[in-house]
Amino acid sequence: xxxxxxxxxxxxxxxxxxxxxxxxxxxxxxxxxxxxxxxxxxxxxxxxxxxxxxxxxxxxxxxxxxxxxxxxxxxxxxxxxxxxxxxxxxxxxxxxxxxxxxxxxxxxxxxxxxxxxxxxxxxxxxxxxxxxxxxxxxxxxxxxxxxxxxxxxxxxxxxxxxxxxxxxxxxxxxxxxxxxxxxxxxxxxxxxxxxxxxxxxxxxxxxxxxxxxxxxxxxxxxxxxxxxxxxxxxxxxxxxxxxx
Length: 244
Hints:
It comes from Spizella passerina (Chipping sparrow). By secondary structure, this protein is of the alpha/beta class.
């Protein structure tokens, strides 16, 4: 009985450790990290040979005030040598101020896809450091995320304008979106694929979103599972998209 108890405790401890570390699948070049903390962040070194890295869980709030300095040459060289192509961040609370400070470092990487799944975006970030900054990310997706209404965030979008102008694919799904500011579409000049499925868009919210000059290169648009009721209204709402 004592032996079984000891084995049970060891197994429970192992499960706790496994919930706070990274696992690398060499065959698929895929790395999955769970609930990373300062104590277990060392296991992320396993992900250096991965093309896809996923981070699930963890507490980013504690790093909100962490000083983030400019990178030295050796760190920039290391980031440039990584082969990671896609990063997924899931089930975390994301302070926008922290995201705004670290996003610019993606310019030193080869990351082409960035996805947020089941995240809550909190607060307001200072995006001025991204003004004129380009990023290699061409595909951006948000699924089941919670954030402040997009309307009123035009200054932030303006600072991200150079990057957003090169973005090719965008998905905002299952996130209770009721409207999309016209200003966003005018910045997304190269976007050719947009998914707004499983949201709360109505017929009347389409024309303001797809205004004159918005999404000039858009070819694919997904609107299924919204609050749409009229084919005629939808066709009128997207009538200004020249490439659709």
